[in-house]
């Protein structure tokens, strides 16, 4: 039996795909679908989010986006969702992302981005301000121009994780609601042996779960919590995100913008909800919603769409993205027998979930190489040839003095 | 050796880096390595210094001294509080003092900056204030006990270069503490110019972190700062209206 540690969108997707392939699996998570997947906006926008130095991430995103429609259709069927038309009952929509600019400076940055996208051969259209507002009449009149990435999509991550849990239940896959306190090692002799299961924090679960679960293999998909379980280089990157509610949809596609250098995006849901995101903060395991976070989200969202001030504030949450040093996920063999990694998805967990599950089943080896956890391990017998002189993350306690 | 000395501490690199704007920590790490910097600023607001794997660990890994900065503060009170929290968390009494006047231009507020500088100096800090290119304010901050002055070349992140070289020269002429050109650098020639004007060091971030190839631009900046420093020490020739042959015109 394969044990998936972590019941976010990545872990649940892996469990579902493995189960569909006929493999026995179990998921363990104290509160499935309540972490980063719960906070995420669900943009599937590899093209409009491309930046310098991140072409490998673009390749992963484009490949995973290609998988999304069939992933969504099969998931909807497996979960027994009522026929939801083209959105599969998951609020999946592929109507593109519009990236808009306001001032002269932001417009110049947009032109530079368009040139970069052109060089990469990405299908984007450069629009005038009026063309942008014809597509999205609620946009501020001050919009000067935009870039339309017609192939970008989005989905409601909460519907996806609910559907994944439903599909797993229908397939009879156990989802154990408990916290993993550590990985079980076959620790014969000196050194660390293979991972053979996990030890559960049964006190936290009220003594209703076994003390441990044995497994033939463990897949670590625990997001930011992967670091403390396996010492992998994953750090929390806090994001605050806001959900606004209106009876009438205000936008018909995802809108991104740069307001005086700060990026902001708005994602419309089918039910009229508008998601505004998101801050990026290096605050450790802190999920507090702050005045400054809320202020900046609203300030920038109002610049893009002045009418947002009329909407009801439905929710503000903070989630923790599992960031890696190079922003690429860690997918594949960990280097320790019995332990596979599927973590470090940073801002792309929702987008990359279908690809992650496929990579773990041996598909697309070229892309798998980009995500190999081996890239953060120093080569045997030599100092790390690329990357930092010392590991960016080590399991230590206490704080260090700086020289 | 031609060391940069700030508050008695020696640095062989005259390029001070900032960390804002890098697409990933790995890209930042490689750029810092290519820059050869020994002193790098980190914005302390919205950063938990005890969190593992953050930008602070990148600097620790490279043995680069951390210069906490008060970026994002609008009042002297906030800046003083941020500096104290940074001292407590990082164990350094150095601070880059940055108090901005408005979000649009991010220009430094001279009055709040001076107020905070006085209080931080009295509290035992080594204060490096970010200021406009104002020779009078630079002199007053030096008199108030700042360890260096950091005039801007142009607004933060603008990449407009050094808009008023004359004022920078006036600041350099009068200063008894290091002058560090901070903000506005767009490309390598801007950094070289700062050094040719007599600045003791250059601080930059965006020009590197938002370049298409941050590691290459960092290496370019390193070379430019060294070239500009050498040119300053060598002494440039006077400008002439007409040609002067460098070799005999007749055989």
UniProtKB/TrEMBL annotation, chain A:
Pfam family, one: DAO
Chain residue ranges for the region called Disordered: 378-403
SUPFAM superfamilies the record matches: FAD-linked reductases, C-terminal domain, FAD/NAD(P)-binding domain
EC number(s) reported in the record: 1.4.3.19
Keyword Transit peptide part of the UniProt annotation: no
Functional pathway: Cofactor biosynthesis; thiamine diphosphate biosynthesis
Compositionally biased region (Low complexity): 379-389
Gene Ontology biological process terms in this record: thiamine biosynthetic process; thiamine diphosphate biosynthetic process
Keywords: Oxidoreductase, Thiamine biosynthesis
Top-level EC class: oxidoreductase
Listed GO CC annotations: cytoplasm
NCBIfam families from the UniProt entry: thiamin_ThiO
Protein name: glycine oxidase
Biological source species: Nonomuraea montanisoli
Taxonomic placement: Bacteria, Bacillati, Actinomycetota, Actinomycetes, Streptosporangiales
Gene: thiO
UniProtKB/TrEMBL annotation, chain B:
Main location: cytoplasm
Record-stated family: Belongs to the ThiG family.
Domain Thiazole synthase ThiG: 6-248
Subcellular location: Cytoplasm
Any one GO MF annotation of this record: thiazole synthase activity
PANTHER family noted in UniProt: THIAZOLE SYNTHASE
GO terms for biological process, alphabetical: thiamine diphosphate biosynthetic process
UniProt entry keywords in alphabetical sequence: Cytoplasm, Schiff base, Thiamine biosynthesis, Transferase
InterPro entries, sorted: Aldolase_TIM (IPR013785), Thiazole_synthase_ThiG (IPR033983), ThiG (IPR008867)
Listed name of the protein: Thiazole synthase
Assembly and oligomerization: Homotetramer. Forms heterodimers with either ThiH or ThiS.
Purpose of the protein: Catalyzes the rearrangement of 1-deoxy-D-xylulose 5-phosphate (DXP) to produce the thiazole phosphate moiety of thiamine. Sulfur is provided by the thiocarboxylate moiety of the carrier protein ThiS. In vitro, sulfur can be provided by H(2)S.
Biological or metabolic pathway of the protein: Cofactor biosynthesis; thiamine diphosphate biosynthesis
Documented EC number(s): 2.8.1.10
Gene Ontology CC: one annotated term: cytoplasm
The species this protein was found in: Nonomuraea montanisoli
Gene: thiG
Lineage of origin: Bacteria, Bacillati, Actinomycetota, Actinomycetes, Streptosporangiales
Catalyzed reactions: [ThiS sulfur-carrier protein]-C-terminal-Gly-aminoethanethioate + 2-iminoacetate + 1-deoxy-D-xylulose 5-phosphate = [ThiS sulfur-carrier protein]-C-terminal Gly-Gly + 2-[(2R,5Z)-2-carboxy-4-methylthiazol-5(2H)-ylidene]ethyl phosphate + 2 H2O + H(+)
Pfam families (UniProt xref): ThiG
